[in-house]
TrEMBL record:
PANTHER family: ADP-RIBOSYLTRANSFERASE, SECRETED EXOENZYME S. GO terms for molecular function: NAD+ poly-ADP-ribosyltransferase activity; NAD+-protein-arginine ADP-ribosyltransferase activity; nucleotidyltransferase activity; toxin activity. It is found in: Secreted. Keywords: Disulfide bond, Glycosyltransferase, NAD, NADP, Nucleotidyltransferase, Secreted, Signal, Toxin, Transferase, Virulence. This is NAD(P)(+)--arginine ADP-ribosyltransferase. SUPFAM superfamilies: ADP-ribosylation. Belongs to the Arg-specific ADP-ribosyltransferase family. It comes from Malurus elegans (Red-winged fairywren). One of its GO terms (cellular component) is cytolytic granule. One of its GO terms (biological process) is response to antibiotic. It catalyses: L-arginyl-[protein] + NAD(+) = N(omega)-(ADP-D-ribosyl)-L-arginyl-[protein] + nicotinamide + H(+). Residues 1-21 form the signal peptide.
């Protein structure tokens, strides 16, 4: 048992730890995510699908995380019966499985979706950045294509969803137009979302996010996946102590890029996208 004089010390250390944890809360500006790679592949889905096998082989060699995640996702998909419908290809199904495997066995660092989304938020800085540094071109296309396929199947409808975030506070302005600029996981179930954090809670009306729970690694999470290119209007922001709540309403889409891979290589020098 600790001595009586040590109890106040323990309490002080505990309070100090809590204060430190509060102090390191990341403040994140939320804007139109100008550096996001936001290709919607309008008018070129068939050509991209045709280019996929060679590009896929190349990226499996260049990106070990993607290669390991893909192999594990394919095995899991086969274990669950190799279901494709309502998707249009096995590659779409495996891509969604890989993306939603939040704690895969192949890595002790970060899951695929975290590394992938960090890359998505930066790859649109320039054409050069996308072509030479972004080794998730296949995954980006397959997820975008899968969401478009599911949206056509499910019908073009809007959904009210939630997203909870821990350790981050987002700086937003009422009335402002914003994008997440990445593939963003949300849930139809508020309680599920709060399990991921309550420092910031988004309440989102999305019209391009798609219900993927039946093709997800974690169907119980009732996930709706929002693409990088959907835009939102900030309709309300509240602050309660260190807790932030943000309401967003779909405001259409916006993309800086379209069919970028099929445009061919440039002169090899960075240029604004």
């Amino acid at each position: 048992w600790p001595l009586p004089t040590m109890v106040p010390l323990a309490q002080t250390l505990a309070l100090l730890a809590m204060t430190t944890a509060t102090a390191v809360m990341d403040e994140v500006p939320m804007d139109m995510a100008p550096n996001s790679f936001d290709d919607q592949y309008w008018g070129c889905r068939d050509k991209m699908t045709a280019a996929l096998p060679a590009l896929h082989r190349s990226e499996l060699q260049q990106n070990s995380l993607f290669a390991q995640a893909w192999a594990q996702a394919r095995a899991e998909w086969q274990k669950r019966g190799s279901r494709v419908s309502p998707l249009s290809s096995s590659d779409q199904a495996i891509a969604l499985m890989a993306y939603t495997m939040d704690k895969p066995a192949y890595t002790v660092t970060t899951p695929l979706f975290e590394t992938f989304n960090t890359a998505v938020r930066e790859a649109g800085y320039s054409r050069w950045q996308y072509r030479n540094k972004f080794h998730f071109k296949v995954l980006h296309f397959l997820l975008t294509d899968a969401l478009a396929t599911l949206r056509d199947t499910q019908g073009k409808r809007c959904r009210d969803v939630f997203r909870g975030v821990s350790g981050k506070q987002f700086n937003v302005t009422y009335g402002k137009k914003v994008r997440f600029g990445q593939f963003t996981s949300t849930s139809l179930n508020k309680t599920v979302s709060e399990g991921y954090g309550t420092d910031t809670l988004f309440q989102v009306t999305t019209c391009y996010g798609v219900d993927i729970q039946h093709v997800s690694f974690n169907p119980r999470e009732q996930e709706v996946l929002i693409p990088p290119f959907e835009t939102f209007k900030v309709t309300k922001v509240t602050q309660d102590g260190d807790k932030t709540r943000i309401w967003l309403h779909s405001n259409g889409t916006y993309s800086n890029y379209n069919c970028e891979w099929l445009r061919g290589d440039s002169m090899g020098t960075p240029s604004e996208g």
